[in-house]
Design brief:
single chain
């Protein structure tokens, strides 16, 4: 039976396997991998016309006005009737009660 000629990825795997085996027989061992240092994330500088994430815009707005972040508790939902008025609340609910 004649061997099937290897090409492409199979040929590369075969060559790599042979090279590793030759290195081991000559006393070469793979180097130990060291852990990469984790770099802290840095803020991306964007141009004035570049789109921004909504959360970043919101946090910048809160900081610029000195507001507190009590918004995470659903403050808008609690004050919705005051914001839009009783007619809009009634229409949104689909009924006549206010």
């Amino acid at each position: 039976m004649t061997p099937i000629p290897t090409t492409g990825a199979d040929l590369a795997r075969t060559a790599l396997r042979a090279a590793r085996q030759a290195a081991r027989t000559h006393g070469n061992t793979p180097a130990l991998r060291t852990a990469r240092a984790v770099r802290p994330a840095t803020a991306v500088r964007r141009g004035p016309r570049e789109p921004e994430l909504l959360a970043e815009v919101f946090l910048a707005l809160v900081a610029a006005h000195g507001w507190t972040l009590g918004t995470a508790g659903g403050g808008l939902r609690d004050h919705w009737p005051t914001v839009v008025g009783p007619d809009a609340v009634c229409a949104a609910r689909g009924g006549d009660d206010a």
